[in-house]
Amino acid sequence: MIEVTKDNYKDEIGGGQAVLNFFLEGCRPCEELLKTLWELDEIVNVYRIDVLEALVLARDFGIKEVPALILYENGEYIRKISGSKLGHLEKEAIIEKLEI
């Protein structure tokens, strides 16, 4: 899992499937989701971006709550899931919701 910025995230997510995780430091559901994201990173590249460092980008993606996960395929936006309940989901549930 790699932390990216608003300036380099496009370079990182370019090939294959990738998941971009918008998070906020101190956000409990974001912290709870970390273990699952490490497991998910074994099958798909996971990148993290601090929402406070990328407010305009978050707004452009319609991020209204964190954590948020966005699935990309070959650099193209596919779908997004978000909300505090993500912190309680297991890897398999996230795979199903993102349709990985």
Which whole number gives the mean pLDDT? 94
What Rg do the Cα atoms give?
A: 12 Å
What share of residues are in beta strands? 25-35%
- CATH homologous group name: Glutaredoxin
3D shape: globular
Low-confidence stretches: none
| CATH fold description | Glutaredoxin
Annotation, overall tally of beta strands: 5
What is the CATH top level name?
Alpha Beta
Helix-strand pattern: EHEHEHEEH
Strand order of the largest sheet: 1-3-2-4-5
- Spatial separation of the terminal alpha carbons: 17 Å
CATH architecture: 3-Layer(aba) Sandwich
Main beta-sheet strand count, sense and barrel state: 5 strands, mixed
What class do helices, strands and sheet pairing give?
alpha/beta
* Count, helices: 4
Helix share of residues? 25-40%
How many domain regions? Answer: 1
Protein name: Thioredoxin
Domain Thioredoxin: 2-86
InterPro entries: Thioredoxin-like_sf, Thioredoxin_domain
Search tags:
5 strands, 100 residues, 4 helices, globular, 5-stranded mixed beta sheet, single chain, alpha/beta, Glutaredoxin
Task: Summarize this structure briefly.
This protein has 100 residues and is of the alpha/beta class.
Describe the structure.
- By secondary structure, the chain is α/β, with parallel strands linked by helices.
- The chain has one domain (2-98): Glutaredoxin.
- 31% of the residues lie in helices and 28% in strands.
- The protein contains 4 helices and 5 strands, in the order E-H-E-H-E-H-E-E-H.
- Strands 1-3-2-4-5 form a 5-stranded mixed beta sheet, covered by helices on one side.
- Helix 2 links the parallel strand 2 (17-23) and strand 3.
- This is Thioredoxin.
- Pfam families: Thioredoxin (PF00085).
- Residues 2-86 form the Thioredoxin domain.
